[in-house]
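I'll show a sample.
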Amino acid sequence: MEHQELAAAVVNLLLGDGEVTPKAIETTALEMVRTDRLKVEQKADGTVTVRPISGTVGPAPMRPFEELLVERVRHRCGNGVDRVPIGALGPGDGDEFWVWWRGFQHSVREEAMALKLIRPARKRYQTLLLRCAVLAAWFGPLCAVLPWCPYLVRGILVIVLELSVVVLVWWTPFRLRSGPRLTAAGRLAAQEWREAVDAGEHRLPKRQVGAEGPESALPVRESRRIWSSYGRSWHVVDTEPLDPPRWGHTWQFVMLSLTVCLVCTATVIATLTVHFPYGGALAATPVLVGALLWVLWLPARRRVQAVPAELRFHGVVISRWDYHTIYDDPMRDVTHYCCAIEDPVSQKAWSFEVHQWIRPMFTGDTNPELRDRFRVGDVVDVHCSPRRRKVYQISVVEAVPR
């Protein structure tokens, strides 16, 4: 199969063994630039930006995933900007990206299936039946001959049986969650692309941000760098994580100091009364441990103090997402609606939980009003505590079109 026959997104799927990764966004955008479906401009700092071209472009109609990419470009061109960096098309704005990304992946897979490069994902019951058949064909004869084998051979067969269980459980064709798989033609095309001299632009990075699900592309547990167009200029914002700092608080230092003092006092008293050997070393041990913990606590304390305890600012929502937690007593399901809001003064973004929707477990109740109250691009007034990750008051000043 000639390389030119395949779209960049399909090549990304082949190199990803049937999975579409966020790298496909970049390669598809560059391919559409070469075919005059997007307009490109390179800024002085090296940032490559694209914008849609009005009117009809090219003699051939656009593929479905190319139309979705143009839609994504138009969606990100807001707040007075008419172009968007290619890096800002990928993960970063949370659920809005993830909803679009599912459609993009589906369109690329449909294209690859039409070319007979991948086959659909295997159903779970089919995988279970296949596992049972292989287990019966493999373990049946071994278990049948096991009683007739000598003692040494029997031990070797038992070890082989145990190792084969591990192999069959973790072997790729027998995973319960099987994604789309490459056909023979797809594997051949993938091998050709891996060996091609011009495959460098399609080569996947070692770490695919957001490829493992929406949570992997969101600033929930760790800080992220997110593109923002606030102020009519695209820039990258350092986004603080949703969780408040867990180490470096005053109460931890008080508990640490009391524990060290009590242990040290008890060691000294025991050494003087019972006359332990090496009593001096035992008495110095708590002091050394306390000094070590102090050295670890002090840098964390400085990081906590660097985060403002209270803040009022006029900013913009640059990422919005939600996640679920389940509680057993009482049995309920909680949806947490979260936002990352950019503060243009400090040039940082703070992540907050702005709503909760609590409902009984096993119910499909939703609350679209809470989900849609804030959108990426909304300008808001915020009174908050970034140190505690709490919002005291938040109001929309300028909303993007719903």
About this structure: The chain is about 40% helix and 20% strand. The CA atoms of residues 49 and 84 lie 5 Å apart.
